[in-house]
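Problem 12. The chain below contains 166 residues. Write out its predicted structure in token notation.
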Amino acid sequence: MAERTSVADRDETPSERADRNLAELLQELRVALPGVQVLFAFLLIVPFNQRFSEVTPVQEKVYFGVLMCTAFSAALLIAPSMNHRLLFRQGDKDHLVKLANKLTIAGLTLMAAAMTGVIVFITDFVLDGVVAAIAAGALALTLIVLWYGMPLARRAKLLREVNDTP
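Solution.
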């Protein structure tokens, strides 16, 4: 069994732990935010493209859904920074870390939906609906496995190990 780290392994106060957890979370957001911002920027210019008038009513609805998922994803991923600014020096960092964690998970979930939807939109426009469905299904499955399945399976295994320890 691989050796695990725990709170007891660190010589830090609860405040130091909250500081570290927030710093780690903000570092993760620095990776995710540019992706959602680039996707949002792309989506904002799409309607001004000459060929946008060729999209079908279904493609228009997919586009709008993707645009909204991306906007809400950006809002959720930026929210921890705004919350941190408004709660700065209020001694509530543990709450802020827990809230930011939930906002980040929700934001990344919407980002996964937006990424899958943009694949549907572009592939359906360029190729056809069957290819779009296959491409979107492949991406959705990949995101589900990598972003949810693997970490949740590992989490369940770690919880079982803790519960099995005498």
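Discussion. The chain has four helices and no strands. Students who got a different answer should revisit the alignment rule from Section 12.3.
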